Amino acid sequence: DAKTTQPTSMDCAEGRAANLPCNHSTISGNEYVYWYRQIHSQGPQYIIHGLKNNETNEMASLIITEDRKSSTLILPHATLRDTAVYYCIAPKATGNQFYFGTGTSLTVIP
Amino acid sequence: GAVVSQHPSRVICKSGTSVKIECRSLDFQATTMFWYRQFPKQSLMLMATSNEGSKATYEQGVEKDKFLINHASLTLSTLTVTSAHPEDSSFYICSATRDHEQFFGPGTRLTVL
Predict the structure, then answer these.
(1) DSSP labels for A28-57?
(2) Which of A42, A43, A100 faces B43 most closely, judged by CB atoms?
(3) β-bridge mates for residue A50, sequence order
(4) What would the pLDDT profile of A13-66 be if each residue is shown by its tens digit?
(5) Which residue of B has its CA nearest to A91?
(6) In the 3-class helix/strand/coil scheme, how is B20-44 assigned residue by residue?
(7) What are phi and psi of A83, to 5 degrees?
(8) Is B109's Cβ below 8 Å from some Cβ in A?
């Protein structure tokens, strides 16, 4: 799997967009980028994933650079309930094992 | 979305006893499940890959004789922590794969006294 690098922590004002970056410069052409989040003492929750194209769902948008070496998760209107640790993962196409990095601890401020 | 459950959610046991944790995919069949461990203020660490009908594949440094994994059906994988010790106290999380997505269980908090 490709190594991912994320900032350790970020703050975001409630109601504003939260933009969480992730570097995955060693990603292979067939490896997806997944985003999960974990609220304290719960299992990780799936947010979104993508390969090349930008993706959007009811939770978030995923912007992947053209060279695929980095991506940004966008929470369009952050709420207090979005406070969590956000993980960016790029597993190998075969096996699909997830090796979690340290993630980004997002704090949404009232 | 797909639902994965774990049982029990919390368990306290004495040192030297064994503890079994169940992971079930409730609305889909999963040929592959994964087991993770998470210590306080740390990230999730992959312990093993559980494949239905075959032996689990353990990550480097994880003792297969201490953490017994059985994946006897397409909806159930179990993790048994044998001869548990206080250092095995942790948050154990399973996940099941469907269509390249991993769906995580709510986790099991193990405390070994």
Answers:
(1) -TT--EEEEEE-TTS--EEEEEESSS-EE-
(2) A100
(3) A33
(4) 999 999 999 999 988 888 899 999 999 889 999 999 999 989 999 999 999 999
(5) B100
(6) EEEEEECCCCCCEEEEEEECCCCCC
(7) -65, 120
(8) yes
